[in-house]
Amino acid sequence: xxxxxxxxxxxxxxxxxxxxxxxxxxxxxxxxxxxxxxxxxxxxxxxxxxxxxxxxxxxxxxxxxxxxxxxxxxxxxxxxxxxxxxxxxxxxxxxxxxxxxxxxxxxxxxxxxxxxxxxxxxxxxxxxxxxxxxxxxxxxxxxxxxxxxxxxxxxxxxxxxxxxxxxxxxxxxxxxxxxxxxxxxxxxxxxxxxxxxxxxxxxxxxxxxxxxxxxxxxxxxxxxxxxxxxxxxxxxxxxxxxxxxxxxxxxxxxxxxxxxxxxxxxxxxxxxxxxxxxxxxxxxxxxxxxxxxxxxxxxxxxxxxxxxxxxxxxxxxxxxxxxxxxxxxxxxxxxxxxxxxxxxxxxxxxx
Amino acid sequence: xxxxxxxxxxxxxxxxxxxxxxxxxxxxxxxxxxxxxxxxxxxxxxxxxxxxxxxxxxxxxxxxxxxxxxxxxxxxxxxxxxxxxxxxxxxxxxxxxxxxxxxxxxxxxxxxxxxxxxxxxxxxxxxxxxxxxxxxxxxxxxxxxxxxxxxxxxxxxxxxxxxxxxxxxxxxxxxxxxxxxxxxxxxxxxxxxxxxxxxxxxxxxxxxxxxxxxxxxxxxxxxxxxxxxxxxxxxxxxxxxxxxxxxxxxxxxxxxxxxxxxxxxxxxxxxxxxxxxxxxxxxxxxxxxxxxxxxxxxxxxxxxx
Amino acid sequence: xxxxxxxxxxxxxxxxxxxxxxxxxxxxxxxxxxxxxxxxxxxxxxxxxxxxxxxxxxxxxxxxxxxxxxxxxxxxxxxxxxxxxxxxxxxxxxxxxxxxxxxxxxxxxxxxxxxxxxxxxxxxxxxxxxxxxxxxxxxxxxxxxxxxxxxxxxxxxxxxxxxxxxxxxxxxxxxxxxxxxxxxxxxxxxxxxxxxxxxxxxxxxxxxxxxxxxxxxxxxxxxxxxxxxxxxxxxxxxxxxxxxxxxxxxxxxxxxxxxxxxxxxxxxxxxxxxxxxxxxxxxxxxxxxxxxxxxxxxxxxxxxxxxxxxxxxxxxxxxxxxxxxxxxxxxxxxxxxxxxxxxxxxxxxxxxxxxxxxxxxxxxxxxxxxxxxxxxxxxxxxxxxxxxxxxxxxxxxxxxxxxxxxxxxxxxxxxxxxxxxxxxxxxxxxxxxxxxxxxxxxxxxxxxxxxxxxxxxxxxxxxxxxxxxxxxxxxxxxxxxxxxxxxxxxxxxxxxxxxxxxxxxxxxxxxxxxx
Lengths: 351, 305, 515
Hints:
The complex is a heterotrimer. By secondary structure, chain A is mostly helical. Chain A is built from 13 helices and no strands. In chain A, helix 5 packs antiparallel against helix 6 and helix 7 packs across helix 8. Chain A starts with a helix and ends in a 5-residue tail after the last helix. Chain C folds into 2 domains: 240 residues, Rossmann fold, CATH 3.40.50; 171 residues, Rossmann fold, CATH 3.40.50.300. Helix content of chain C is 33%, strand content 23%. Classes of the chains: A mainly alpha, B mainly alpha, C alpha/beta. Chains in contact: A-B, A-C, B-C. At the B-C interface, helix 7 and helix 8 of B face helix 3 of C.
């Protein structure tokens, strides 16, 4: 009686929320398409044709679509690496560095244990990736819990340190005989198997799995409840007896571990080799995706999908019609600008 | 004792550190007003590429420097619009600006990759030119290098000896208090961004027009981040930044020196020194209750009700 | 309408018929208030009497709903602090507007209306020194504000006003954060200011100080002027009489439980000393025992340590001396989670900001203090059915009814507090701390909350009730303690004492009340 009514009310509220956010997203997409179209016009390209090309290149063919998925997987994972800490009020901009360290440690595993069979080596590499990313995130988390330094600054600084460490190893001990900036190719046992005759690899399942766990934990478990409380009102959470420091350190490490999984997947699956400087902003992209979706799992999924359409489309376009890849960066930035400038009007819930 | 290698390191540090110092000075002004501008990477690229492009087209490097300066100011105004007027999240805004800079600079600079330019003339410092050629050639600097220290002193004077500087620092500490004293925090932040943007532009100009004399994508390779770290490391003080810039940029030259003496240190590890140093310093300060960071750094000023 | 002929010839500023309403309360009700050209005028009253509001109107922070402000015979309009400063009115708030990272000189320079675009620190320093010497506001212009004591910071605030040409200085509870010798120094400063022709208004609730330094005293009570008198006519008794109305509170009938002294206390504080940060009060030499089945009331004007006492018992903040024993175990400086789990409940004064998470439903908020109790399968699931059952049962017990699925922000203050009460009472706490339980609540909610407290007492819990409402304290407490300046200055049985005596102690008076 009372409960059923409440459930219905809850459901209606949820539906309204989803409709509201979809409308918001659509509006944003439209505005961005408009602005970008203008830029295309100015640089002498036909916007309608370009959009059509992007569409056919990405969603119009099986290959194109698979490429979109390939691009989407790592940024979805890095977005989760940011979203989880954001729920307890932590700003983890360190996905980039955590990703590198995860890749680094996983590479060590691949090069050292290259005689192991795949069913042993792959899980080991993923584990190493988690450890690498987790440890890298432990430092900022611990410093924050001691009240010493803000985690935004520490994660940023460490972001710049990690690629150098990777380069150190790659150019130093690990480089392949032919090229100094990358390791030798990984043995087949160290490669994530691909699916559907495309470049999509097992990491897609990692991404979906992590997304599902994230959704479930936040929604239904005790820890999710406590985390939301800490993120929502730390003062009240503290008064209610929730251990803030413990959560901050642990959640930060878990976030780093997730980014580490992304790093390990990149070198094991996509590349099959560790190239110095292989990530040009995967971690930052994850931050922006998480931020734009307010840390909401569904939003993260949708946003990473849209972003990877843009990126993949750009890549394919570059090959076919000579539009420089750099233009894609502008498109992404424009999307962000629109979101940032309009946020007051959209009035979404803040993380 | 053979002074040459040491002087060589010193001279090399000055050459490569000048653009870092200009950028750091610009960022010091931003941060003193409470804005963390991580989009420096993108702004530097845009300024460097446009300055370079104009130099190629016009053949006049001074024009290129001027262009870079203006572009720096303009890009910062975009940032200002988002962060000050729209009160958007500072972190997301700067990252967006960074991506924007990546893209825009690549487009501007694409036609000019590999182009050669008339670079800024190198002037000799009176008094040093009488030294043997080997030495004096180390110390022929272009006007941007010569001006950088006077400009640093000017920035210091501006921040600490003028009424405007007092107000700017007040906004960075507590925008509410600054407002209570009758000032307009929004306007002051815009002013800070514009001035700082121009300085950043000068740094970018020096990088592409004078130091490397070329343009390539992502050529700033982290200088923007190093500048942010350097601002923190030098405790937001323009004069200390001079030493820090020499230190940070001298590391690479120093590494080469070490190498020639038989000591092998990976350049990559040396690259991490600026950040590790900054991190260490931050941890050390964290123990004391108040350290020197402007108190409202990174916070968005909502205005009064 | 303004007949300035009936004003005292020395009048500098006059406020006539000032009325100001906030939702639910009339803060100022047709107040007439005059300040002379050179005098020290104390504005006295309990919390909520309307003193701060009145002065904020004078300083342009608020605008009055009705009434006029007249300066030297002419009505003026003060729409902002900027206007007030133009009229040479300055105010020092309880929260200072100083920048800790700047030194004294820079803080003052920031507010100087005539600062040169390029200024010489030396010159400004000389100006500061000149004024500070004259009035005894000794402070080193080059010292960093963050390293000054609060008393010295206050001097800087006063210097700021003097150097920006203020003629009327309003000080809001200036002695709240001062040590006794600093208070004396402040009074000397005010004296010398007055001799030089400045007018000073200071807001306070402390009687002794008023009698020591004010020329005239205005007492506010319930938003209205209870009386204005020169110091010569004032005495502690007279002032207390004006501050608290003559009516005695109606004592509710409650059964007196026979408490055997041999029962061990639930909570025991031994010689507790804390150091408050910034503006928090520091507790000194606190010895307190709370037994099962009793309500211990804590009286005191806000700012004297009650909130800090409640927080400390809960586990927020560490003590620098002393011991805290709970249910027979030494739990000094143990974390809040542990303390709560052993059976301590806490009802804070501001349920929205201090006890609930705004975007989580009421149901989820309820579960927050007891997540461990309702977690199943090691935390993987939450037994929401059990949560609902428990809390609905309690709701019915108390006669509350509100939906468990709404968000806290759509609940009224009264309902929010009910929510918190339900949450804290459901698991039969053995010790309950209620901090300003009924502040800002409507009548019905107030009654419901008080009833809940009595119920808990019936069930054998020990309760610490912190309140500024003397009527409430007298009605509910079995024992009453009074806090002043972070120390317990008196312990009473409510049926043996009166509001006057307690009120006396709350204001720091030392003369024993002769009824």
